[in-house]
Amino acid sequence: MNRLTRITSILIQLQSKKVVTAKEIADRFEISLRTVYRDIKTLQEAGVPIGSENGIGYFIVDGYSLPPIMITEEEANALIVSEKLISNQGDASLIKDFNSVLIKIKSVLRSFEKENITKLENRITPSLKKEVFESNWLSTIQKSITNTKVLEIAYHSIYKDEQTLRKIEPLGVYYTDKAWIAIAYCRLRKEIREFRLDRISRINPTFETFDYQHDFSLSKYFSRFTESS
């Protein structure tokens, strides 16, 4: 990768997150921290308003934006693969959101790239699953996690064969080979529980908020099971 391409890619990376560390940039492009500092300085001298905080990272000043980003054919192909995988995982809200993004991305492709995408769409498929538990709540739960909003759900328990109304504080989500699972603090049971999304019959977002647990991560959560086995 030449320097011009790398600097442009660094600018795109800076726009992808609120704050990006020099190490993240160095690891992605396999360059030294010294090279990162030089590239950031080049962008600043070109007029890009990049701020920095010692020990935290770099950020783009609010209000700055680039023209629509052009993507390569290889990147578009990767999106088509992702679309096929997502369409086979069972959650209608995720499929709808991703398809909306994909349409916007396709709109900036050149004519021959659009033709190639059409060819690829009919020549690739994920493994065909005999059974997928369908749901439609992933988008709402993701939004709840980022906005720390309490959700009221109607949940059907297979073990007791009963439906309960409970309020939950979503902490994370993961996908098994058949279904999406939400990890959340359950106010009814007063502990962290797992909820299969296909067993939720209704979700009502509330105006209540909960404290964002900064120390929670899926890697820590799953490590508890590894240590106990």
UniProtKB/TrEMBL annotation:
It comes from the Bacteria. Residues 3-58 form the HTH deoR-type domain. The keyword Lipid biosynthesis does not apply. Signal peptide: none annotated. Pfam families: HTH_11, WYL. Keywords: Transcription, Transcription regulation. InterPro entries: CBASS_pafABC_assoc_protein, DeoR_HTH, HTH_11, WH-like_DNA-bd_sf, WH_DNA-bd_sf, WYL_dom. This is YafY family transcriptional regulator. It comes from Flavivirga algicola.
